[in-house]
Structures are given as C-alpha cells and as structure tokens.
Amino acid sequence: MNRPAAIAETELHAFIDGELPPDRVAAVRAALAAEPALAARAAAYRADKLALRALFRPIADRPLPPAWITRIAGHRPPRRLAATRRMAIAAGLVLALAGGAGTLLLRGGDTILAEAEGARDGTLRPTGSFVAQAGSAYMLQAALGLNVRPPDLAKFGYHLVTVDFYRGPAAGLVYRNAQGAELSIYVRKSHGDARFDLLRRGKLRVCIWQDDVVSAVMTAEMPAGEMMRVASAAYASLDM
Predict the structure, then answer these.
(1) What's the whole-model pTM score?
(2) In angstroms, rounded to a whole number, what is the distance separating the alpha carbons of residues 217 and 204?
C-alpha cells in the first residue's frame, strides 16, 4: 500500500479554508484518513477558526458606540493602543478570517504599502541588517523608538532569521519556515489612524494594520485564512 504524500502546513490551511487547488484535495483527504496526528491538527485548526468566528462576530457586526469614538478621538496614549481601538482592529482581523476576506481597495498614496513592497523586492535599500539573535527585541526598540518586539510565529512554523533597518525609521522582519517559504513584516511608527486592509499581489497575500502607535505590513505566499491567523497573532504579540 502506498503511503500518502507529505502534506505541507500551507496546504493543510488551504484545505481548511477551501482554497486548495482541486488536484490536491484528494491527496490531502487521503493523508488525513491515513495519519491520525495530521487529522487531529486539522480538527484543531477548524475548531480554532469556528471559535474565533463565534467569539468575535458579534463585536465585528456592531459599530463602536459614539461615546467610545469621542473618547478615542480625544485621547492618544503615548505607548499602548487604547483597548477599544485595538479591539476594533482585532475584530476586523477576525471578521476577515470568519468571512473569507478578499481584496480591498487601496487608499491613494499608500506610502506604507509602497515602502513594504520596496523592502521585500530590494528596491528600498536597508541602512543596516543583522541576523536574529537574543537581543533582537532590544535592537528593534532602540532603532524604531517604539516599545515593540519581533512577533513569535513559531507555532505557525515561521522563525525570525534577519532584521533590516530602513530610513524613517523602519524595520523589516524576515521569517522563514522549514520549507524555505518567506514571511516578512515591515514596521514603522504610525502616520495615521486605525486601519486594516487585506489584499492580494499575484501569489502573495498582504495584510496591513495600523493603530495610533505602529504601522505594519505582513507579506507572504499563503491562503487568506492562514494569513489572517498569522497576522492576528503577530499583531497581538508585536506590542510589549
């Protein structure tokens, strides 16, 4: 009897999100039937997705109360994002995950996106780089003047390998998984109001989030559902 072909983590997420190419669906189903550990992992991912949808859908469907908006507009904390605004962005992330996010319209003069794309394709040259190490968080904070740390994405199979610095100041965090797939996060001080955008650039998914402290762009080749799970975890752990 032939052993089912190994299933990459990205394929498993794509299967769960209904984005796997038809010619791979049968292979994934065969692997799930043959490997209890893989089936259990897939079940856990599905349960996580359903739990997030059930928990945050009511928040995402309701507009923020006018009193909250007034308080947010009149108060900008110096280091950490107001809880209501963070909740609004987190709800946006989860709503996109629950509803199957698609490409959103870009805003005119989207500087943060242009910078992130330049950092990824090499047209924006770094002023310095270093290999990820124990002191990466300290160096990132010192360079950006922000109380942030590189997100830990190990549970998704991605590990920080390098940190590049750019004028602005800004930083590019480069992660890779065991298969060599790359995920990048471009970070700088916020220049605007809270926002969330999810879009597509060819095979790449791009997630932009911004609060009143930090602007960040995550880019990777992965299904939308997986991107939202990774982006929500990164956003939650970026702040110190």
Answers:
(1) 0.61
(2) 12
C-alpha closest to that of 165 among 211, 205, 115, 110: 115
Domains of the chain and CATH, by start: 9-52 (no CATH), 100-238 (3.40.1000)
DSSP string, 83-132: HHHHHHHHHHHHHHHHHT----PPPTT-HHHHHHHHHHHTSS--SEEEE-
Residue type, 159: H
- Using DSSP bridges, classify how beta strands 128-131 and 195-201 pair: parallel, antiparallel or unpaired: unpaired
Mean pLDDT computed over every residue of the chain: 76
Q: What is the pLDDT of residues 63-105, one digit of tens each?
A: 655 655 565 555 454 444 445 455 555 555 555 544 444 433 3
Per-residue pLDDT of 158-180, as tens digits, reads 999 988 889 888 999 999 998 89
* Distance in angstroms (rounded) separating the CA atoms of residues 82 and 11: 37
| DSSP 8-class letter at 148 | B
Describe the strand order of the beta sheet including 159-166 as a list of residue ranges. Answer: 128-131, 159-166, 170-176, 182-189, 214-220, 204-210, 195-201
For residues 179 and 114, give the distance between their C-alpha atoms in angstroms, rounded to a whole number. 27
Task: Indicate the helix (H) or strand (E) that contains 173.
Answer: strand 170-176
